Amino acid sequence: MSDREIYITKFDLERLWSLIDEIRQHDDKRKANLDMLEKELDRGLVVEPDEIPKDVITMNSRIVFTDLDSGATMTVSLVFPSDANFEKKRISILSPIGTALLGYRVGDTVEWNVPSGTKRLRVDNVVYQPEAAGDYHL
Length: 138
Known about the structure:
- By secondary structure, the chain is α/β, with parallel strands linked by helices.
- Helix content is 26%, strand content 29%.
């Protein structure tokens, strides 16, 4: 992942720290994923939900991105682990790609390491962002 500035709503930050704390108490298998998410949260610019730019990926956002290596375009929703479902294109914040996407904006290139090397995605569109729609409870 890069050092580019990312945005996180105060509401998402609080819920994600609670998630991290809860999982750490019960699941040692996801330590690497949690460490990666913590690093992203620590570097994020925290804003109130009503102040987040409309083109930023927040929790429960539906986004379109392009894999810059394969050219494939995909539409997914970024969700909490309990709502993740690959067939419904709902990716968990704890997946490497989910953690990588949080806080980025339309036009940004997101990079993260996978076993085969570095993956690069371009954020093409935020189709739905809860905060922009006034859905502050999601």
